[in-house]
């Protein structure tokens, strides 16, 4: 007797679950810390570690920590600014730490947006102790959503930092607007673009603190009326009474420009230099 079977079988692609990321921050292939030389477990204002998952090379492992009880994240952007970036990190919700995957639209937004699907991110560990978030998770390198939502991380990016003292404000919200407290945190972590999948080592910061000051420090003009280029609001106001006043002048040392700025506020005042008429869509410098 001959037995003959004819059947159809469903072919399934099985994706290996990523192994648990290391809880040792020094073990990560690519590391950024602020300030230089700080201990991520105790006194870093911000730390991120990145490396390809050992069990499944389709995933990138992430270690994040910051001394806040809201959220901490890392962004991947084609420019040193947040718009048009892929951003993921950890956030406190109902006293629990969770990992979320978000993105920023090209034109920028006050709060970034939660990815429609969260299946690309695999949460591993998260703690909130003594006011410090520490978490590890894995993110699918290629991503399975639209390029406007998920970027393929096997490319070169500016790595961007962010954290906030406040957590999620709504069920479907991403990371709320940045509050760089405590500390003065640079948004772009390095001057050069890096490939987070291929790069290794402790990379330099964009804004390194230094105790070394130049010996030939220029002396700017003191009188605001002596500045060659002036901008004031309202028109014709005395600089000391203006809502805003800015003066720019050539220094006697031709390698420097002098700036005079004053504003009727208790926070900060700055001037930006951009190749376009806005602050977001292109890289810019601000002082």
TrEMBL record:
Residue span, DOMON domain: 44-162, 242-287
Keyword Signal: yes
Signal peptide start and end residues: 1-16
One Pfam family hit: DOMON
Protein name, entry field: DOMON domain-containing protein FRRS1L
Keywords for this protein: Signal
Biological classification of the source: Eukaryota, Metazoa, Porifera, Demospongiae, Heteroscleromorpha
One of the GO biological process terms: regulation of postsynaptic membrane neurotransmitter receptor levels
Keyword flag Signal: yes
Source species, domain of life: Eukaryota
Alphabetized PROSITE patterns for the sequence: DOMON (PS50836)
């Amino acid at each position: 007797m001959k037995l003959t079977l004819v059947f159809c079988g469903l072919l399934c692609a099985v994706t290996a679950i990523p192994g648990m990321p290391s809880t040792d921050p020094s073990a990560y292939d690519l590391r950024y810390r602020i300030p230089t030389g700080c201990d991520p477990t105790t006194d870093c204002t911000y730390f991120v570690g990145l490396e390809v998952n050992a069990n499944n090379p389709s995933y990138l492992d992430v270690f994040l920590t910051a001394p806040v009880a809201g959220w901490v994240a890392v962004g991947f952007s084609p420019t040193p600014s947040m718009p048009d970036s892929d951003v993921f990190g950890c956030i406190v919700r109902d006293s629990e730490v969770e990992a979320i995957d978000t993105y920023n639209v090209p034109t920028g937004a006050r709060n970034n947006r939660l990815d429609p699907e969260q299946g690309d991110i695999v949460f591993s560990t998260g703690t909130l102790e003594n006011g410090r978030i520490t978490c590890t998770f894995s993110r699918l390198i290629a991503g399975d959503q639209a390029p406007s939502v998920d970027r393929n991380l096997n490319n070169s990016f500016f790595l961007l930092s962010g954290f906030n003292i406040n957590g999620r404000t709504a069920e479907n919200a991403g990371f709320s607007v940045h509050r760089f407290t405590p500390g003065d945190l640079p948004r772009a972590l390095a001057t050069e673009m890096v490939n987070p999948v291929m790069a290794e080592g402790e990379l330099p910061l964009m804004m390194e603190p230094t105790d070394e000051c130049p010996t030939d420090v220029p002396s700017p003009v003191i009188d605001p009326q002596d500045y060659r280029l002036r901008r004031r609001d309202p028109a014709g106001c005395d600089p000391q009474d203006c809502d805003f006043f800015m003066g720019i002048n050539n220094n006697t040392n031709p390698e420097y420009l002098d700036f005079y700025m004053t504003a009727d506020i208790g926070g900060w005042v700055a001037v930006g230099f951009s190749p376009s008429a806005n602050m977001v869509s292109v890289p810019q410098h601000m002082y």
